[in-house]
Amino acid sequence: MLTVERLLRKQLVICVGTGGVGKTTTAAALAVAAALQGRRSAVITVDPARRLKDALGLNDLSVEPHRITIDASAGGLRRAGATHFEALALDTKRTFDALVERFAPSPAVAARILTNRLYHELSNEIAGSAEYMAMEKLHELFHSRRYQIIVVDTPPSAHARDLLAAPNRLTNLLASRAVSVLQAPASLLSGATSSMGRLGLSTLLKALERWTGVELLHDLADFAGGFEEMIEGFHTRAEEVNRLLRAPSTAFVLVTSPEPRTIETTIGFQQELTAGGFPVGGIIANRMVAFPRLAHAEQLLAEWDEPLRGKLRRNYTELRALAQRHRHALQRLHEQTRMPLLSAIPAMTEAPTSLVGLLRFAELLVPFSASPKLKAES
């Protein structure tokens, strides 16, 4: 059975889940925990939250790795010493540019695409491009051998599905009939079923050119024609990414909270991942309330005068009921998924907003003093 300690032996850990469950914090804390185990670690986020940048002491995150020095002794933990990990965020445009330069058959073709006006406008907007570029950056980092473990913070689950489908979707788009039509836009006119249709379409295209000041037909053909020569490279890379996402050295972690809607979403997503052949390692549950039953609760309450005694009794009853609901929620999650619970993080008054906070969160994930130095798992 996978544990957090064994999870940190993986080379690629992908945190998935719905929004608002602490997924970004969990991903960063896993990178911290891996670094404190002596592993070269990095966390990459597709959409970094402001509080993560604050916690890391950065004004911004970019596609260039930022080295973060951590000192466990500063957090009052039981492990002394300093180490580091790296953090970076996706930059769709820069990653797309680098991919064009890599796959273009010649510098001249690359320059033609990169200077194309439509490419400048659409490289951030093509359906699937952001998700594809996230996977491309992940592939680049993995094969650079710079890190022993990479932790990926994905977007909320609905978009994470797009992320996992992106390698095939974008290559299918580039190889589609639509792109071949763009290479020869005049075929749009010849394909019109009537002279009136051809006249209307021709008028529309000319009007667009006049309004935008762009030689629309020429730019469309140039844009699509440049990509035609790179489809094979995109397809090959997509296949490599698909293999990487399903490799034994990869583990998907379902990050959740005990709220009923979140539990149902997590169950559904686990089923989708499993059906897709992705290796799901287990569950990390955040914001858990574990309030024990006090054997001498009434005796303790008797020490207080009314009305405070009544308020304390109500608080005790409510917390006990909440803890029971959370316990039942995790039980349902396990029954439906049969996934191991890697860690249950107690509810905190506020999210970690500093490196010390991340260190303490990481300590909840895996006690540093109890874990031996880990080796890579192939």
Describe this structure in words.
This protein has a single domain, classed as P-loop containing nucleotide triphosphate hydrolases (Rossmann fold), CATH 3.40.50.300. Helix 2 packs across helix 17. The protein is built from 17 helices and eight strands. The model is unreliable at about 175-195, about 195-200 and about 370-378 (pLDDT under 50). An eight-stranded mixed beta sheet has the order 3-4-2-5-1-6-7-8, sandwiched between helices. With about 375 residues, the protein is an alpha/beta fold.
Provide the fold topology.
Blueprint: H1 4-7, E1 12-16, H2 23-36, E2 41-45, H3 50-55, E3 66-71, E4 82-89, H4 92-103, H5 107-114, H6 117-122, H7 129-144, E5 149-153, H8 157-174, H9 177-183, H10 186-190, H11 195-212, H12 216-228, H13 231-245, E6 250-256, H14 260-275, E7 280-288, H15 297-301, H16 308-337, E8 341-346, H17 355-365
Parallel strand pairs: 1-5, 1-6, 2-4, 2-5, 6-7, 7-8
Antiparallel strand pairs: 3-4
Helix pairs in contact: 2-17, 4-5, 4-7, 5-12, 7-8, 7-13, 8-13, 9-12, 14-16
